[in-house]
Amino acid sequence: MKKIGLIILAGGKGTRMNQEVPKVLTEINGVSLIEKLLGSVGKFFDKSDIYIVVGYKGEDVINKLNDEYNFIWQKEQLGTGHAVIQCREELKGRYENILILYGDTPFITEKTLKLLMDLHLDSNSIFSMITLKIDNFEKENAPYWKFGRIIRDEEDNVIKIIEFSDSTDYEKNITEINPAIYCVKDAWLWSNLDDIRNNNIQNEYYLTDLVFLANNQGLDIKTLQVNDNIELMGINSRDDLKIAKKSHKFDA
């Protein structure tokens, strides 16, 4: 059994992008978001160990990537948790751990990914994740305003993630946010996904609910805090795209 398999979520339309092109195929300097991401993860994963979840215009994504990866269809857009569930039949028991990334997060570096995977493996963690700490939500930090907030207890343990649409005014002012990058034990992931519920404003199955489940089970959630606001940004709107285009990190 291999140590780690990779799931990339790439099924979203990206409504706020105001385009017909799938969000992950948005280009900067002639390179699509997902191609940039694959360039980084390719340092650690063979193509046979990369599983890309496609949905909206998935054929376009598959054709762009020359059918070189494993593609899994999410026929209905019911949330990130639902997207990962589609991978269970194909992946369960094939790997010891699963790394989960989003296809619209192109700037993540090999260094950060290695730090997360090393933290997860060296500590024999069941659930590990990256968090991002910023000073405020102004200017280049504006794209993070609608990200989920990290909720910690008095002993600084992560206990849950609150999605922006479900958060209170107090929680919206929390400046440690969730860029949605996780590394999870395979067996624990597949046995807990069915416990995710869609009792939220969006009526979607949030992958972030796994953090709440892990905490309720008394698990020690390992976190890698990153302070680079550009590295972890997701491209979710035209404004985000403008910020990304100004970044020196997106080299063709």
Please explain how this structure is put together.
By secondary structure, this protein is an alpha/beta fold. The chain has a single domain (2-241), classed as Alpha-Beta Complex (Spore Coat Polysaccharide Biosynthesis Protein SpsA, Chain A), CATH 3.90.550.10. Helix content is 26%, strand content 23%. The protein is built from 9 helices and 12 strands. It has helices at residues 33-41, 58-64, 80-85, 88-91, 110-122, 169-172, 186-192, 209-216, 238-245; strands at residues 2-10, 27-28, 31-32, 50-54, 70-73, 95-102, 127-133, 148-152, 158-162, 176-178, 182-185, 222-226. The strands form 2 sheets. Strands 1, 4, 5, 6, 7, 8, 9, 10, 11 and 12 form a 10-stranded mixed sheet that branches.
